[in-house]
Design goal:
Layout (H helix, E strand, L loop, with lengths): L4 H7 L5 E5 L6 H17 L4 E5 L5 H11 L6 E5 L5 H11 L3 E4 L6 E3 L8 E3 L4 H10 L4 E5 L6 E2 L5 H11 L2 E4 L10 H11 L4 E3 L8 H5 L4 E4 L15 H18 L1
Parallel strand pairs: 1-2, 1-11, 2-3, 3-4, 4-7, 7-9, 9-10, 10-11
Antiparallel strand pairs: 5-6, 5-8
Length: 259
């Protein structure tokens, strides 16, 4: 399997690896300075893109980081605004020249446990027409979208094949994940997704490590890596250059073999 021309045009390579910028830090200035340092490590070690995400920050921290990234040489920049805020993500791409967005889910209907006194909330993609309109208005922005993703439980009666089919109509690559951030995506889930999506681009979105990357990226078309690149696999820690280098050396060998 190879990426579509639309994806190849921004990443310039098959099997792109995208590094997460979680915006961890003890203060706003710490978040931004650490983000710039992590972007530089990723760039120097051959990571093909980055996602700026408000995992440990706020949407305004994403804005400030994107402002800084406009003025330095960096990797291909993407945006993820949790929880699944495609409106802001598209807007930030437009204002700051980012090339792609990641959405936790692009199709399907889910619930997730909350600590709110009302208990469970149901999460859907919202107004389908509004998303379609936003995507048309941002047609140059690549969309990486999850289906049956981490932290979200599909409603009873959900059909994976139907949800993937809908997802493929709404995005440029499907993201497959396991149970949570840093947790390995099961091989049987990757294989099932590949069978159902065919040649449509498939990205492993969680839990990649040097131990599983060969097996998983021989099936999938790319990966998003966050926790493994951090010291002690902790998203609150800075990116560790040696871990990035070790991982990317394996990816280079995978690229040679798949090509």
């Amino acid at each position: 399997m190879v990426l579509t021309d639309k994806l190849k045009n921004i990443f310039k390579i098959d099997i792109p690896i995208i590094g997460m910028i979680h915006l961890a830090g003890h203060s706003s200035d710490d978040k931004y300075s650490r983000a710039l340092e992590e972007v530089e490590i990723y760039r120097e070690e051959g990571v093909d893109g980055i996602i700026v995400e408000n995992y440990h920050g706020l949407p305004r921290d994403v804005i400030e980081t994107l402002k800084l990234l406009r003025h330095i040489e960096s990797s291909v920049v993407g945006v993820n605004i949790l929880p699944n805020d495609y409106g802001r993500a598209f807007a930030y791409c437009m204002f700051f020249g980012a090339k792609f967005i990641q959405l936790d889910y692009i199709a399907g209907t889910y619930y997730r446990e909350t600590i709110n006194k009302d208990g469970r909330y149901f999460y859907t993609i919202g107004d389908g027409e509004a998303y379609t309109d936003d995507r048309k208005d941002n047609s140059k922005v690549i969309v990486l979208g999850g289906v049956h993703p981490k932290y979200y439980t599909p409603l009873e009666g959900s059909n994976l094949e139907a949800d993937l089919k809908s997802g493929m109509e709404r995005c440029d690559a499907i993201v497959v994940t396991g149970e949570g951030t840093g947790k390995e995506t099961p091989m049987d889930k990757i294989i099932e997704f590949r069978k159902l999506v065919g040649d449509f681009p498939l990205i492993v979105g969680a839990g990649l490590t040097p131990k599983n990357v060969y097996e998983q990226l021989m099936i999938a078309d790319g990966g998003i890596v966050g926790s493994y690149f951090k010291a002690y696999n902790n998203t609150e820690n800075p990116v560790n250059r040696n871990k990035v280098r070790e991982f990317m050396n394996i990816v280079k060998e995978i690229r040679k073999e798949k090509n």
